[in-house]
Amino acid sequence: RGESGHRAAFCIPLIVPRSIAYNIFERHTPDMAKKRVKDCCWHTRPIKLGQDYLGRAVHRNRDVWVIRVETEGRVQHAAADADAVLDLLQLRLEKLRASAGEDVPTAGCMYELARRLQGRARYGEAEELCRECLCIR
What is the pLDDT averaged over residues 55-61? Predict the structure, then answer.
């Protein structure tokens, strides 16, 4: 989690038909409407509007949408391989450096990229980014 309590470091804008886009504060996807979670007393309950897939409240200042993609009547779940995430973070870092220079958002992106590189056992690259990040902060 970030300092503000958000679980995402960035968002990916998509342009899709409204029929497959669901604002979590307004309506559930059909599968989320059926999903049940356990509350603090271990009672099973439906997910409420404004909650994530685990039944945790999402702050109202967030603009969270879920995209439901179906192929031949079956829901397709989004997946990204680890290298694609690294590529995306590297591209984001390049764009931040070009537009904003060495500021706090750039350092945050560096840290996230370094953390993921470390998880892939690419320690030399991760260490270099961590050192750069510390110089900014």
Answer: 90
> Burial of 113 by CB count in 10 Å (0-12 exposed, 13-18 middle, 19+ buried)?
buried
The pLDDT value recorded for residue 82 is 65
Q: What is the pLDDT of residues 90-121, one digit of tens each?
A: 999 999 989 878 788 888 899 999 998 998 88
**126 in Cβ contact with 114 (< 8 Å):** yes
Q: Which pair of tokens denotes residue 9?
A: 């470091």
> Three-class SS of residue 97?
helix
Determine contact, residues 44/37, Cβ cutoff 8 Å: yes
Model pTM score: 0.51
Cα separation values, 53 from 10, 17, 19, 104, 130, Å: 19, 22, 20, 30, 32
Scan for tokens 């409240």, then name that residue. Answer: 57
More confident residue, 137 or 35: 35
**C-alpha to C-alpha distances, 25 to 11, 12, 74, nearest whole angstrom:** 18, 19, 24
Are 117 and 87 within 8 A, CB to CB? no
Q: What H or E segment, with its residue span, contains residue 31?
A: helix 30-34
